[in-house]
Amino acid sequence: MRIKEFIQKYRKYILTGLVLIILIGVFVLILTQKQPETVSIQRDKKIVSPFMENTKLPNFTLPAKKDLFTEEFLSVYSILPYKRPLAELVHKFDNKAESRYPSEIVDFWMSKSNTFIYYKKTGIFKVSSPYGLPTPFLIAGREDINLFITRYFELTDIDTDNILVEKNSFGGYTYKGKYLINGKTFGSAYLESYAFIIQTDKDSHITNLSILLYNKDSISVYSQYSLLSELELLSNKRVYIDRLTISENYNNLDRYIKGTIRLDSLDVREMQKAYVFTDFTGGFVYPVYIFMADARYKDFHNEVYAADIIMYIMATEQKNISSREDIVEFSEIGTGNQ
Amino acid sequence: MAQKKQSESIIDSVYDFIFSEAKKTPDKVTPVEVGDLDTSNPYVDVIAAVLEQPLMYVNETTEEAIKGAADLGLNKFEVIADGKGGDTSVRLSVSEIPDLLNNDLTLTKKAFDKLEAARKAGRMTAWGKDLAAFTAAGMASQLGLDADTRDTFLRMGKSAEDESAVHEANTRSIQLAAQSWGKGNYQNISEADLKSVYGDKEGGEVYTNLQSIHQKYKAEMAKPQDQRDFSHVFSEAGNRDMHLLFEKVTLARKAAKARNNATKFAPDSAQASRFNRQAQGYDDAQNILGVLHNSDRYSKVGGVEKFLMRREVDLGKLRKELESLSKATDQASRERVKAIGVKIKEINTQVRSFKLQRTAYNLGVMETQIRSVQQLYEHTVGGRVVPAIMNGDFFDAKKNTMWDLQPRDMDRTMRLTYLDRSGKLVATEYRGFLAKKGKNRFQQAYYDGMMDFYYRFAPMGIIENITTGHGYARQAYNQRESFIENFRVFSGGKLTGKIDWDKLFSAEGVAYLHSLENDPNFAILLKFIEDNRGQLEKFNRLTATANQFNLIEKIKKEITESSLYKKTVGKLGGIVAKKIRDILLKLAKDEVAKSTVKNWFAQGANMKGVSIAVASTLKSFLTGASSAVGLFVDRMTDLARRIARPLMKDLTFVVSFALVSIVGIVIPTILLLSPFGTMKTLGSYSHVAPYEIVLGDIDYVVPVDGPGFYDGPGGTVPGGDIPLYSGGAYDIFMSIASEFGVSVTLHDCAGSTEGYCGRILGGWCYAAQGTVFCEMSRIPASAYNTIFRHEMMHFVQGWYFDYHTDIKYREWGADYMSNNGGWYCVVVNGVSMRATSAAEVFKREGGCTEEDLINLAYRRVDSADPQCAAYFHSRLESAQTGYCN
């Protein structure tokens, strides 16, 4: 009875107190809830162009079917080198392979039937196995590629749906594919923009393997840059050209000439937007446009050589990206090392 | 039977092949891939190893070693023929060196002969007993000895642990005894002679066995012929010592027969000569068999080791007893103390003698191993092998990559832990002191042996040991391996896999043993440890010693952890650097050395700079010493730098480097000075080309007069099909730029030192930011075409992602593509040469094609063949402008 009276007498205060307690509780709850981290990405951070300026780059036109980025800003990602000991990996494939010719540039192993090389700069790991890798693992289709790379390299972000499969001259297949980075595909400029190229023989054994290795837990956005306009794209001379094939007459040239044949014209067949990794000097994955083109080279005697090339151009505005020329510095004769 | 003949002909053809290969030079032999060998053949791995690494295990050195063992003055048996084809007696010819390989040594007048015998035994069995037996069998075959003798060697070469081999040998021994007993007079061989052959214990047993067989034989012979039963008579012949005796007698009998055959022909005839050669072969075979028979005693679990372990246990017991008697005053105790003293002295003498014998044997092993690799190394890698071993190049994977000769694994680590006196855990991780994993046990033995040799005898290894403790860590590792192997033999292989050896050989060892005390399964281990406690203690002592000598790591740790360092790095660094500079200046005797010191310290004492300054100063200080000392200083400096490089930065480096320099350079140099003191014929820079200081793997050009003092590019190098442009410097420059498709400009500094022109110093050009800055007045017109092409190459290299590497690769590339336009001298495999000549080495040795080399020159490394790329980067050691040595 007394309680009822008490409640009735102090009802307003009790209600106010209860509301306050509930509010405080909600407030505390909100405060103690872990806030999602807001990461602010700095735009236009200083970066050096991965590609050298080629002032003699011939003019070209974009193909009818254009594949252009549409985002206002494009991210440049940063990745770190592969962490797992390569020797262990090699011995998983071939426990008789021995380390040979150690240097700061490459790690190399060989056995009687296989060679393995890891290019420390570009992160590319290559296996050559003319008789097929002595692993129980056979590659009989796209799904095996995923399993193989996951099992042996512990790299899981593979764009399985878009693995290119072609028949090869050994009676087997060549598989080319890319990794995924935040939903976007990327590969290496040294592997025709792919992340891996795997060749098999008719028995589904791997005979050749090239794969970009990196630390999958290290991906981060380095900075964002404005998208390059179509007009700027055609006038951007900072390019990297990978020559895939060249006509026979090139083989007869003296090395001085071989080294100096220049690109005379190019006819772009196809273009793609993509992300490519170049090397671990900066460790960046850049948004680029890739142009597959028929090219014509000339030597200084005006002899012509037909070639099949891939050309890479950064897809971001260049105004905040410093020139690669700046890194070329050297002295000669009598001044010793730098 | 047909099967047997076929297999015999196969093994003979294998021998024919191996011995014909053994006479070739390394470039004429090809490793044979071994596929379908009969795996039941106990020599299958021997054959595989020999074929896969030709000239390594069977070569002139190993053949000579076997012949050397044949010359040993061992005891031989002689068979006296009765003139009717039978024997009248078997006689033991006691040599000048009795009990050579059996009894313990005392330092008598024959001690040196005995050590020589041990050394020869080591030389012969350097690659293992079975490989020696295999080679000896092949030599017997080549010499025309019968197949039975060849098989005798092969039988004797099998391991004493191989039960089927033991059974086979025993059966053979019984057969030989049964066949020959009636013809010989074995019972008349004296006990003393047998003891001199087999040692006191075994010789006595052989004598007893012979007498026992004789009694039983006599008893059977006394029976009527139809009642005789010899089945039990020769059973005592079935053991390894008796086997040796009967084999030796059989060989003696064959020798006598061959000699007898020789007498049937004219003394100078080919037939007589052939039979006499065979007779000699059968005689020599007796000794070789004897050495094979005894070689087990030197193995890790052999008689010598067992003897030493037993004596160590005995000593321990005696010392304990001595302690317990130390306070006793009664007469009996005093007598016992006296007796113990005599006994300890006696044991110490024996132990010393056995250790000497073991060392002599090991030296013999190393002698054969080093001489075996000598031909391979010198023919393929280049340079002499012994200096390479002494200065450490042999153990450098970058410099010694051919034929799998390099024994060291630079990557393997081992963590050694122990509790110090205060009970604190001390843990150190050592890297690079372990041997590589061999493809087979022979190669493994070689790798292990070479690493042991390096730390014990090579100056570079000794210095590495006293600055890093690696040699002691290696000894600790060997103790551990030997302990495990001994236990495996002791326990018959039981339990080995169940023991946590890492734990036992660590700071947790005692606790681990306590945890096993109540488990009866491990009683055998505890018993073994009780008997071999000394070996464990030695391991712990070596672990602690290794840590004591791990100077660099400790100094680094102490400095970096000190608050003083943290607070005053810059200041203290400056003071220390100045002190070092002052010391070096005081030591420097000439202006070249002084200016080098000043120059490098003025530039900020970086590692390479200080090492150049130290080397220069020390060579200057040692003016008058021989060229060998100068070379030694270079090598020591190089070593100090190599050791310091990965470990240190800034001040830590400066302080530690000074210490490493003093320990690693000054002390050994002073030690070495006296023996070289009588060779003062050349100046301190005598081993160096004019104007150059050779520093380990770097040839550093001292620009005394600027580039004009040497011929310079374009002057003397024969041209190739290089495009040549005419006109002035600017025209030529722009033509080449256009050819390459690069946009660069040429700037003549004309004496200015502003901006990048200031970086030219005494040189010709400096290139940066799309411009080549040159002091044009210094460049001869004849050099324009090549030097500008060289410069242009650098810009083009920048297009590719492998540009950012050591400049030696870029300079080689620029020079290769400009016909040596930069006038660089590159060092490949320790040999100094022009870039174009180096290309030939890369093609020849590294399997590179011209296309590969162009890709490497442009720094498109991924595009070159993998093996070529690996070889190129591993073997190109440096690039410096100037003359080539």
Sum this structure up briefly:
Chain A has 338 residues and is of the alpha+beta class. Helices cover 18% and strands 35% of the residues of chain A. The two termini of chain B are 65 Å apart.
Tell me about this structure.
The complex is a heterodimer of chains A (338) and B (885). Chain A has 338 residues and is of the alpha+beta class. In chain A, 18% of the residues lie in helices and 35% in strands. In chain A, strands 2, 9, 10, 13, 14, 15, 16 and 17 form an eight-stranded mixed beta sheet that branches. In chain A, strands 3-4-5-6-12-11-8-7 form an eight-stranded antiparallel beta sheet, covered by helices on one side. Chain A has a two-stranded parallel ribbon with strand order 1-18. The longest helix of chain A has 22 residues, at 11-32. With 885 residues, chain B is mainly alpha-helical. In chain B, helix 15 (441-457) crosses helix 17 (470-490). The longest helix of chain B has 50 residues, at 331-380. Chain B is globular, with a radius of gyration of 35 Å. In chain B, 43% of the residues are buried. Chains A and B meet through strand 3, strand 4, strand 5, strand 6 and helix 6 of A and helix 28, strand 10, helix 29, helix 30 and helix 32 of B. Strand 19 of chain A pairs antiparallel with strand 10 (765-768) of chain B, so a sheet runs across the interface.
